[in-house]
Amino acid sequence: MGKLLIEGIKSIGSPLFKEVRGRGLFVGIEIRSDSNVDGKDFAKKMFANGLITKATRDTTVRLTPALVITKSEVEQALEIIAKSTKDLE
Q1: For domain 2-88, is the CATH number 3.90.1150.10?
Q2: pLDDT, tens digit (0-9, with 9 covering 90-100), for 9-63
Q3: Which of 15, 31, 43, 62 is close enough to 55 for a disulfide, judged by CB 3.0 to 4.6 Å?
Q4: Are strands 17-23 and 54-56 parallel, antiparallel or unpaired?
Q5: 46-67 burial, b if ≥16 CB within 10 A, otherwise e?
Q6: Inter-CA distances, 33 with 19, 39, 44, Å
Q7: Whole-number Å distance between alpha carbons of 68 and 86
């Protein structure tokens, strides 16, 4: 599920993303520092769209889903991440 989540986020291809990295289901999305959005803005937008995340530092958002997450839940999270990204672009 971790590989599905990481590859799914990378496939969004947002200009806001500097890097997507992770190990297993512990995933970080780093936001470009030259964008007008920071990690807190992105975390708040995802929360408003139904996904709880945590901003760490100024430019990174951390995703730590439950280890028993299903494929359909990963796909639902990816839809929310994509929608939130489009809302902020």
Answers
A1: yes
A2: 999 989 999 999 999 999 999 999 888 899 999 999 999 999 999 999 889 999 9
A3: 43
A4: unpaired
A5: beeeebebebeeebbbbbebee
A6: 11, 10, 17
A7: 28
